[in-house]
Amino acid sequence: MKFLIALWFGKFLNFLINIIDKTRGSNFSGEKALRIDPNMVAHFKGIDPGKVLFITGTNGKSTSNNLINHILKANGKTVVSNLEGANLLAGVATALLKASSLTGKVKADYYIFETDERFMPIIHRQLPAASILVTNLQKDQVQRNGDPDFIYRRVAPVLKKDIRLFLNNEEPRAKSFSMDHTHVITYGVEKHSDSFRKKEGFPTMACPVCHHSIAFEYYNNDGVGPFHCTHCGNQSSLQADYTVRNVDFEKRSFTIEDVSFPMPYNIPYMLYNYAAAVAVAKELAGIEPADAAKAFASFRNVGGRFEILKYKDKTIKYMRIKQENPETLQTCINIMAGDKERKMVCLGLCPLVDMIPHYTNTFYAFDCDFSELASGDVEKYFCFSERVCYDTANRLIYEGVDPSLISVADTEDVDTIFAEIEKAETDNIYMITWLHTYEHMQKKLHLQDAETEKTETEEKEEKGEA
């Protein structure tokens, strides 16, 4: 009875949310329903654990979830998922609330859930997924997650031998879960034109198994590439089960198992998401790579990852990163460095503000290699944010950037940002900052466009009257 009350209350909340704003409420109803029945996710009926996949890890969860859903649905499968990105227990509960009947029965071919890596064990206790995809475990949000080895110790006990694992072949922590595990599918990416090495002096990471040093042959993403432990047997396989090959960023194509795929986003870090999605489609749902490839052309990722803004005569290329996450920052640095045209670089590295007390942390910028960017054709650098702008500027100076090329503003005010961009001679502007600032910039430009259109209309009407 407690479950039914929670179920009906949650459905009533969803009904109200749909009336008010259908774009909201990705975890609200589940959060409130769980207060009535804390174990309600375990009480939904009709869910076969063999059809349930959890996607967990530091980076790539949302994109992998969206792409896997897209492939399955394009091939006629019904899927229940938390596509809004609410990846805690309440988000999963909300997704099931929306898909269930009034008696709590859920009917779908597959259940695909993005799950926060720290809270995945809590979710798994109520919904024992038989398949788990681990993208990577890297530095991220130290106030919340501590260090990656803490998260590793949280995740490891769940990955028992009866669970089918989808693992990133070239990420040391994820790949180490394959040791002494029999039901493993690996995915990877072969060397391509944007693979890179770091200059000497950068530490890599400690092996999660024996804590000795990990050596990388090269990187496809920061902290991801062919590797071996200098002491134990933790290493990438020479050949992953599903490998992205023949990457052509200009033609936006790659192959897996000799099948040609269109590349929806020609960005290096997306390649591992592509490989993971093809592996899951084949192994979980029996969808052949050739059939998965047909869905790639129409795939559109969640917004705000890589966007273009037009401001007067400037083209602003916005790249969203996870704050305090060196992997995503390094990827963006490499993209900027790969553009040989003259450019302005705007760095809005910000403190994490989702927990109290708020704090600042800039270690992740020192994990990244700025040397290629610093030696490129950069007209000027603009470091902004309310608290860590000077730390960002110092990181550039340590890299050898001439301080006269760096301007600093301890604000995230969009008018200040636009004013600084307007001073640049180049129209090629790159920007890294958190989503909140980008959305304010986008809103500002929309309002300006609307005001301009209104003025032009009024002028035409006045001329017509005259």
Number of strands: 17
β-strand amount: 15-25%
Biggest sheet details: 9 strands, mixed
Largest sheet, spatial ordering of strands: 2-3-1-4-5-6-9-10-11
Q: Which overall shape is indicated by the principal axes computed on the Cα atoms?
A: globular
Overall mean pLDDT stands at 90
* Tally of alpha and pi helices: 17
Helix fraction by DSSP (H/I, runs of at least 4): 25-40%
Q: Which class do the helix and strand fractions yield? A: alpha/beta
Q: What are the low-pLDDT stretches, counting only 5+ consecutive residues below 50?
A: none
**Rg calc:** 24 Å
> For the terminal residues, how far apart are their CA atoms?
73 Å
In brief:
The protein is of the alpha/beta class.
Write a structural description.
- It is a single chain.
- With 466 residues, this protein is an alpha/beta fold.
- It contains 17 helices and 17 strands.
- The chain has a nine-stranded mixed sheet with strand order 2-3-1-4-5-6-9-10-11. Strands 12-13-17-14-15-16 form a six-stranded mixed sheet, with helices on both faces. A two-stranded antiparallel ribbon has the order 7-8.
- Helix 2 packs across helix 5 (89-99).
- It is globular and about 65 Å long.
- The mean pLDDT is 90.
Write the layout of secondary structure elements.
Blueprint: H1 2-20, H2 28-36, H3 40-43, E1 52-56, H4 61-74, E2 79-81, H5 89-99, E3 110-114, H6 120-126, E4 131-134, H7 142-145, H8 148-155, E5 164-168, H9 172-176, E6 184-189, E7 214-216, E8 227-229, E9 242-248, E10 253-256, E11 259-262, H10 270-285, H11 289-296, E12 306-311, E13 314-320, H12 326-338, E14 343-348, H13 363-366, H14 371-374, E15 378-384, H15 389-398, E16 406-409, H16 414-423, E17 428-433, H17 435-465
Parallel strand pairs: 1-3, 1-4, 2-3, 4-5, 5-6, 6-9, 13-17, 14-15, 14-17, 15-16
Antiparallel strand pairs: 7-8, 9-10, 10-11, 12-13
